[in-house]
Amino acid sequence: MSSLALYRRYRPETFAEVIGQEHVTDPLQQALRNNRVNHAYLFSGPRGCGKTTSARILARCLNCERGPTPAPCGECQSCRDLARNGPGSIDVIEIDAASHGGVDDARELREKAFFGPASSRYKIYIIDEAHMVTPAGFNALLKVVEEPPEHLKFIFATTEPEKVIGTIRSRTHHYPFRLVPPGTLRDYLAEVCEREAIPVEGAVLPLVVRAGAGSVRDSMSVMDQLLAGAGEAGVTYEMATALLGYTDGALLDAVVDAFAAGDGAAAFEVVDRVIEGGHDPRRFVTDLLERLRDLLILAAVPDAADKGLIDVPVDVLERMRAQATRLGPAELSRAADLVNSGLTEMRGATSPRLQLELICARVLLPAAYGDERSLLSRLERLERGAGPVVTAAGPPPVRVEVAPPVHAAAPAPAPPPAPVQQATPEPQPQPQPQPRAQPQPTGQDPAARPGAWPTAPAPQSPPQSPPGAWPAGAAPAPPSAPQAQAAGTGGDPERVRHMWPEILDAVKGRRRFSWILLSQNAQVVGFDGGTLRLGFATAGARDSFVNSGSEDVLRQVLGDKLGVQWRIEAVVDNGGGGGGGGARPMTPASPVSPPPMAPMAPAARPAPSPAAREAAAPGQPSPAVPRPAPEAVAPAAPAPPPPVSVEDDVPEEDDPDLDETALTGYELIVKELGATVIEEFHHE
Question: Which of 352, 472, 582, 633 has its CB 3.0 to 4.6 Å from that of 497, i.e. a possible disulfide?
Fold first, then answer.
């Protein structure tokens, strides 16, 4: 008994002793009770799962003196002959088809099959590895398998049932065997170890189950090897990992903790320990992938151990739960994908250590990748390290626009100082809305007009603003989405205007045509907390905004960027002009005369009266103001023509604001959108 292999000493003798195959043993026992036994059976499944053992048990059940019975007595001559260590029965013939699968062997079997049994009820042929029988051999057996004599039974056992020809397979009852579940196999191994009276640590059994891969015979062979080498302390975990070649759990814990902490030094130290310890890098990566799989399941199902989804000891389970919490689902999923890809690349690699180090580097550097999983991994790291993510931003970029200076006492009228040439080109100022009755040509000196509004000299550096105030000529940085949402609920039009450039950028990313229409023709003229009022330069621009779907685009941008659902009202505002900059001064929309102390933009000079314009010759300076010396005037950067606020369909012939070089609507669409205009419709 002691010389027999462990799987032979504990081979089942009844269907009740077969583990993990209840879907096969229960129907077979019921067929025996009902005395509805077929003449041919086909047992298929992975190796070591009980196919041949079940065939022997079925033979015992059929030839028992009390049979056919699902529980052989074990006392009759047939049961003793077919017992675990019995001599065998002359009426139960086992044939290895790997060496007896030819046509001559099949003919010999066919000739002997017609002779009756010597001392039993049935003559039973157990043909193991049946897929090794040649097609000619199966064809030679076809007739006897299809119409056997009453005393003849066939049991075919194979790991590849698809190689058994269809004519044979169709004449059998097919029972597929399966791999034994890990929990069932672990309990069976623990029972065997108790019967062997050798102590085995609890962490060893999962390793044996994993090595057996669901095969009872393979698991019993591994357990037999460990029991044979056990010392006075029995089978220890260190002994099992060293003998089976598995990675020590301490190494796996160390590398997982390094991944969670982002500690590259600790991770590469583990790699060095793996290589210096003589471990196979591929085995280490395989074990690491298995650990990440368990952690990912623990992160998704906290009670995975109770449900049998993972099989680890209790002390290891507590450490794994802490690791799953530290890493998070996104980081674990990304790390598992990288390790799995690296394991595929390691097959056939000439430098497994280099591949292992690259795997660790990729897991430790989520910022090097721009995919969604890497982004989620970075977010999880920030949340674990510092709670809510707070981004430290530098000084906000200053958006230079033309804005009226702060109301103050105006200095006495004086000729403006010579402009200073800027070192770098500055953003061009937006045109300020002016009454239609007073057009102002650029470059005209304000003193040329009698009674002109006084303006303060242009400062050489940005003026200091009091706390809580915005500096003149500069708009505040675009607010964040929560700030913009909070600002938009108070009904403050000025704050909505400050958000307008950011809104236009978002519209540009969604639909360029809508951005051109809004940036060139619209501005914010009012907001009451729920309705955004946009003023358009012309009725045609307003109609194009409403009819082209741009209103829906703007509403979607407001909802996505600010999280608000505002009503949009498009009106014609002749006094505002285009530009879409959102920096319109807080003046009434109707063209009324400005107050005596109304401010003027530094770059936009007031226009002379009609009498002064008629008196001044074209191209000559106004006689009311002496021109400065040529050397005192620095050349200014050419400014792009501002959008013209058109009040009538046809501008006046002497309108100085008209820019003849501006693009027409046709050219604008072709240039900006790359479109082809098929036909134009003109509104009367």
Answer: 582
